[in-house]
Every structure is written in C-alpha cells, then in structure tokens.
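User: Hi! I'm a student and our assignment asks us to look at how structure tokens line up with a sequence. Could you show me two examples?

Assistant: Happy to help. In each example below, the sequence comes first and the structure tokens follow. Example one:
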Amino acid sequence: MLGIISSLLLLSGVLAQTFDPSAVSLNVTYSGNGCPQGSISTSFSPDRTAITIGFDSVYLSIGPSSAAALRSRNCAVHFQLSYPPAWRFIVAGSRWHGYFALDGGVSATLYTTYELRSVDLRVINVPTLNVTGDKYTTAGSEGALFDAESLIAAGDQIGSICSSKGTSPTYSDVLDVRDRFALQANRAGAQQDGFTVEGTTFAQQIKLKWVACNY
C-alpha cells in the first residue's frame, strides 16, 4: 500500500509540472525605421514554442543615387510574455522565410540580437545570415525563396529567471528582439531598389524552449 501511495505522490508531482500552453499570453510593441506602425503582424504557436513576426514594409535601397541611410533598416520588437511561475523560457534562435530578387552585385544581410530585461542579458553572438548568389540575382521579379535558421549556440542561449516559489497567478518577462536588415554592393555601380519581393511578407520565427523550475 505504501508503495502505491508513494507512486501516486510521484505521479502527482510530475503532473504538477506539466506545461500548460493556454496559460501563456503575449503582448507586443515595436518601433524602428524598418517597421513603421501597422507594418508588422505577430502570431504565437498553440504550443507556445514559436513566435512569428511578419514584416510587410521593409524598404532598403543601395546604389550611386541612393542615400546611404537607406542601406540598412532596424526594427525592435518587444514581447511581454506572461506565464506560469513554475516555468521559464529559453531563446533558441530564429528561422527566416521570404522571397528575394537581388540585382547583380548586391547581397543582403540579416542581423539579430536578443535581450531579456529581467536578467539584463543580451545575446550578440548570433549567426549572421547572408542572402547572396545567382539563385537570387537570376530569379526574376518573382524572386527566390530564402529559408534559413539562425540558431544560438547552447552556451550562448539566454533564459528568463524562475520566479519566487508561490508567485501567483502568473509571472512575466520582456524579450527584446532587435533586427537589422542591410544591403551591400559587392562591385562598383551595383544598385538595388527594395529588399524582399514587393507584395510578399518576410517572416521571422523565434524559437522558445520551456523548462520547469526546480524549487
């Protein structure tokens, strides 16, 4: 009998640590010359392991007649996550998906940094993604698909802190995702008007891992 009771107690402990995605909510604000108000959309996967940002108005230009300021654009997206206090999340990186049609001699670059306000930690050692090559310069107006991951090495990942035991009913933290989009001219006279294919949405999917707190 004691063995059965012990087993049930252990089982109840496991069940108490079951992650409930429905208990996680998200509030989003953003700013920057790469994402004017009303120009991005966001969605949260049902299992709460992926946040997707859709960029609709990222405009860049490079060339002899283009202003230097148009060669790069920035967007800072601020995610306030509210979640059960017995859990914490870890930022694992991003996946990018979009269509590019680049002029010859031009390449594009994507930079991202992540910051968690509760621990005042920033990940700057994030792999840079380059969009370059004949695939994109010969694609025509329809463009070619760019789909790539920029994952953070395990030793560089940051995570929210565990709240004090008994905190009720939810705990919250803010994840700042700062993106920079840039164009580079790889030969004299190269020029490009626009970033991704006009009329398409450029998406970034941020990957999260949820870990139970050990009190």
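Example two works the same way, sequence first and then tokens:
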Amino acid sequence: MRIGIDALYIRPGKVGGTESYLRNLLKGLEDIDQENQYYIFTTETNQETFHFSKENFNKVVCKLDGQNRFKRVFFTNTKLPKLIKNYNLDIMFFPTYIRTITKVKGTKIISNIHDLQYKHYPQYFSLLQKLVFNTFYPISVKKSDKIVAISQFVKEDILTHFPEVKSNKIKVIYNPIDFDSLDVTSETNALFQRLKLKKNSYILSVASLLPHKNLPTLVKAFSHLKGDYPDIKLVLVGVKGKSTQTIEEMIRNLGIEGNVIIPGFVTNEELSALYSNAKIYVSTSIFEGFGMPPVEAMYKKIPTITTKCASLPEVTLNKAYYYDDPFSDQQLYEKIKEILECAPDPADLMEYSKLVKGKYSNEKIAYEYLALFNDVYNS
C-alpha cells in the first residue's frame, strides 16, 4: 500500500495532545511496518521536527507556512489533492477533522475525530472557529471511507450528533502513548532547583490553560490545603491559553503565588522527571476525547485523580480516583486530602501501570492502525 499521512497541522509545541498522538503513531508504524510505503506531508515550518530512519517512510515537504490555519485549510483543498494523485496513494489518512473536501479518485480517505467539544461547549470557540468546525466535521464524518474515534465515548458522541452515520463506519482506536519517553532519565537537580521545587512534595497537573481544562477548580482546591500542608506545592505544566490570565489572577487573589509553579512548556525529559517525583496527579478537565496525561501519570505509578467527565473514566480503566462534581473545589480538596492522609498501596499502582502500558503502547496501537489500513484497502 501507498499511504499518505497529513502532518500539515503540526505546529511544534502548540497543538497539545494531537501532536503527541501523531508523533507516537508515526514512531509505532515505523517500528512495525517495513513493507508499505508512507508519505508524510509536512510544512516548511515543521518538517525539521520529523525524522525517519526507515526507507519506506518518506517526508514530503509542502510549500506552506503551517502557522496559519486558514492558509493550511486552503492548501489542503487546492494543492494537497494534486499531491495525493501525483503520489498515487491508496489511502490518505487525516489525523484531525480537516480533510480534503473533494475525493481523489482511487484514494480512500480515513479521518480521525478526537472529540466534538464544539458541540458541547460552543462558548469556548470564536465565530470563525465554529464556522470551520461546522464545515469540516460534517465532511470528515460523512464523506470519509472510515472514521477513527479515539475512545468509545467519542464514537457514541459522533453517533449522537450525526445519526445518519452507521456505527460500523467508526473504528475505536485509542491514542498511542510513548511510554519509553516517560522512562528517560537525565540529570534532574537543575530542573528542581530552577523551579524551586522539592521532589515528592507537589501536586502535578499537565494541561493547556484552556477553559475546558477547568484549572480554576484545582487552584481553589489547592488553596484549601495551605493550612494543613504548607510545604505542598502545585505545578501546572502546559502551553498557555485562554484561561491563563484568569488562573494567574486567581492565584494572586488567593495569596498562593509562592506555592503555585507554572513552568509552561517543558521537554520530554523534564516532564518525565516531574511525573516521577510528583506526590499526586490531578486532572480537572470537563471534556476530553481521550486524555493522555492521566494515563501517563498512572504509568508512572502516581495516585491519579480525575473527574468523571467524558472519556476520562474509560481511558483510565476505572482505576483512578474520581470526584463527582467537576466544579466542586471542596470535593476535590477532600479527595486530595484523602490520598495525602492514606497513601495508596504501591502494589495497586504497579498493577495500574502495567495495565495502561499494555493497552496504549505505540506498538499495540500501530498494529491496530495497520489492520485498519489493510481493511480499508481491501474493502
């Protein structure tokens, strides 16, 4: 097979989990498949971040500045169809909801739907964003030959909002997680000195500072700990977003500036170190199609607290600690305090670590995608 993969949307360090997802998938496919030919379409601004060692993985650098979403959408629907035809692709895989509007004869299209957040929380998006979503999501869902949903929750959501789509058109394949990168060991003292942080004395959350991540609830819950646990700190790792100013103002108003650390973007090695030395991991998100960080935390054998929202109980295999009302800082505070006062059994944490690694490894998920490519090609 000749398989095309769209990497035009990648803006390194700026698109969150969908970037990790694609890079992990490509790594997994390169490890397991030496037979099929892959053509990865990159931009002039992201191509240097993609490196392939196998001869059957080919990088196609497109004359496009990928930083501009609307130029990318225009390119996808004017120039990319010609490239698909020129490379005589059997399958074109779009890892996000944006795909070519027109179909290229002889090429089957697979699209990945990460979530339908715009249907649930339209207030979080601009009018222009909603215009794009309302144009391309229906096209991807209705016109693609096959749809990948990254959780059973997402599949059911698609079927609810697009009832004309048949269930057997949607294949659930979970996101791959590069567990090897979480085992990277390097000198960590400099990191902890820079952040003025003691090991095993902080609560960690990895999330972009966006409204649906619901981080104000975590900040307020953490403020309740000040009296009982004055040495515990809160570390918020992730790219800045629409909620940054709100969160920073709340931290100041609560008088906890000295106890909350927002390092922004960190390297894989630094993230691994922060996971390894955290006391507790917390996700307060109210909407996820998958949710990689809680799973990564479980792999690192950290007691993990999440909401019961969307896909989170599913992808954490119902093995995390859950609180009922995602907006209740009191409930979250009580759950954090419960773990601080009564540490989980290390044997349980070890078991959960093995479970998530077995379910979401790059290799396992890559084999599922390869099976899907074969099924679509032969159908």
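Here is something you could point out in your write-up. The chain has 15 helices and 13 strands.
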